[in-house]
Amino acid sequence: MLKQNPQDSGQNDLLRSRLDAIIDLRHELAKLTGVVGWAGLEADLASYYCVDNGRPGGSIRLMAGLLLLKDMKGLSDEEVCGVWRENPYFQYFCGEEFFQHRLPVEPPSLSIFRKRIGAGGMERLLEETIRVGLKTGTITARDLQKVNVDTTVQEKAVRFPTDTQLCHKAREEVLKTADHYGVEVRQSYVRKSKQAVFLANRYMAARQMNRGRKQIKKVRNYLGRVLRDIERAIAKDRSLEGAFGDDLTKARKIYEQAADRKTPNKIYSWHAPEVECIAKGKSHKKYEFGCKASLASTSKSNFIVGAMAHHGRPYDGHTLATVLGQIEKLTGIKPGEAHVDLGYRGHGIKDSNTEIILSRQKRGITPAKKKRQKRRNAIEPIIGHCKNDRKVGPRNWLHGKAGDRINVLAMAIGFNLRKILRWIFLYLLSRLGIWQNIRPWQTAAA
Description:
The protein is an alpha/beta fold. It has three domains: 19-119, no CATH class; 137-159 and 276-432, Nucleotidyltransferase, domain 5 (2-Layer Sandwich), CATH 3.30.420; 163-257, no CATH class. Helices cover 50% and strands 9% of the residues. The protein is built from 16 helices and six strands. It has helices at residues 19-22, 28-33, 38-45, 60-73, 77-86, 88-93, 107-136, 163-180, 190-205, 209-236, 241-244, 246-257, 316-331, 367-374, 379-388, 400-432, and strands at 146-155, 276-279, 287-298, 304-310, 337-340, 355-358. Strands 1, 2, 3, 4, 5 and 6 form a six-stranded mixed sheet that branches.
């Protein structure tokens, strides 16, 4: 079930203060509150709720407002709920009429809401930021015709993978499941495996490679012995096969890849098996563990109009068609020009309405196109700001492939909202005459 959005009664309370009497209604967050289309968000996101079943959830205004504030300020679920209780501007943004002294919701409710709306609901929130950007003048409809597209690696919050740690972790997790269902093994190797991991790290750090490899082999052998004990127990009692499920499959995969470095589709994290190893050619970081993500921004105003995650390590050129489709879906406008780097060569897009311009391309480049071609590099700092302008850090803490898709959209939403707030702030300063020499349109690309 779903609670209705709070309505302004216009009445006073003897014991509580109205928020519009506490805050400065000229504040940029108060101005943004009146621009967001809350009614449209409620109509679109209400479809993710059951109409007549279950405990009533929070209103769309409250839950969507908390998500927007979280992404805007780069806070965690716990932090945004704590700040909401103290900040009257946050409460006003979420539709409260009077100042509240309690938490809006329990922090896990935000995680449940994200899972409920999924990537489709997050795309709707990103679409709303684009609509608000157009309404406030942060971007213009003409800006949406020219876009820059690039890919990056969305790193997952996982430990750096090594065969030693993966085998040790797999043995521990399989033994936990075996202990839960009463499956006995001949030896658990708890002490021996821990000692072998310690010695392997010490030997490899001291460049004593032969000794280190012997200890790594021991850790793998301990995992193999435990797996064979469990497989023999399953052969005697087939009802245990469903109890172990994916754990046994993941452990067997880790056991095999530790012996063969060329094993395809490796597992790099026990709790996040969807993590992929991507080499980006960086001198300071040869490999990054996560998934590939695409971002698209307007060429002139640097406003994000597309964001999505890609699994399976696709070639950059093969992702361009889906990114352009998402831009058209969110903005309602098909880009006339898309500027990309040389990694998109061979994209195979043959559309007369959209021109794909590569970096360093010479053929058919006019002076105006060459100027926009040079501005393609502006998407690089945009990607950096999306990743690093958050207190939760540049890495993705959300679970599974769905978490990867949600996180990249959340980064884009936060970037757009921060840009809109800055535009409103500079506009208000210029109207008040505090900064006579500054105009918002002169700082839109900053």
